[in-house]
Amino acid sequence: MNSGRCAACKHLRRRCPSDCVFSPYFPANNPRRFAYVHKIYGASNVGKILLDLPVNRRAEAADSLYYEAYCRIKDPVYGCVGLITILHQQIHNAQCQLARIQAEIGALSTQSQSEVQQFQQVENVGPSFLPDQNGVPNSTSFYDLSTWFD
Amino acid sequence: MGGGSSPCASCKLLRRRCAKDCIFAPYFPPDDPHKFAIVHKVFGASNVSKMLQELPVHQRGDAVSSLVYEANARMRDPVYGCVGAISYLQNQVSQLQMQLAVAQAEILCIQMQQEQPPAAMVGLPPPPQDEKSSLLLATNNFNSLQQCLGFASTSTSVMQDPLKRESLWT
Lengths: 150, 170
Description:
The complex is a heterodimer.
Chain A: H1 7-12, H2 31-40, H3 43-51, H4 55-74, H5 80-129
Chain B: H1 9-14, H2 33-42, H3 45-53, H4 57-76, H5 82-115, H6 130-149
Helix pairs in contact in B: 2-4, 5-6
């Protein structure tokens, strides 16, 4: 039946058999999909690739073939490899940025901790240096200044 | 390549005379027959020839390299080909962007806390136990970080997907 032909058989101007390998993946309402894969791979190669796969993997294979064909038509020099290159670059940039920020966090945390420690040291010296309310000097001073007041 | 020169890998495989102006000869030398074999298997010699003819000469070398790459990927993974690698890399990019957002929020929190020193730093008595104060600080950090993360955005897909899905394979 002419009206029941898939996009592949319409494009190739042939009868679409009931067991056509293309028809589940290249429906008649999307002629561009088959046109792209045919332009890049050729119908024969696409048919071979699909036939070599189990039926439950063919839909994904057809999708990926269409995607790669689309990328190749958009970028005839690099195809989807251009995209892979861009992604690698993005990963590299993000890793560098992350390392930089983590180093900054480390530095800020260290600085913050040392400031708190310094303050605590001063705190320990100050109050413990001064005598308590009964006039008795504190013996827990960080710096032993007790001899100065003997 | 004519005369006594060896035919290129493509003409050897196709069993034809290698012309002087053979379009394949510069890119498929006879000492690497596998390179053309794999490209021919996936794309077909005729399609490769058409693709190269449509390109300026100075871009054909790169085009052949990318075709070889794609053909190898398709042979290794007949279902997904290069698209499997793209999906994996996109995932990595998303994860890294999330980590970046978290790290940037953390820096903001630390900077905010450094701009407003804790009460102990301005002459008030310190908290009685060090463990309590560090726990309070950690809790404040976590709450601030949670608030900050509310503004962190997730990555969007890098490419305009012709399959019109947010990620490559949903």
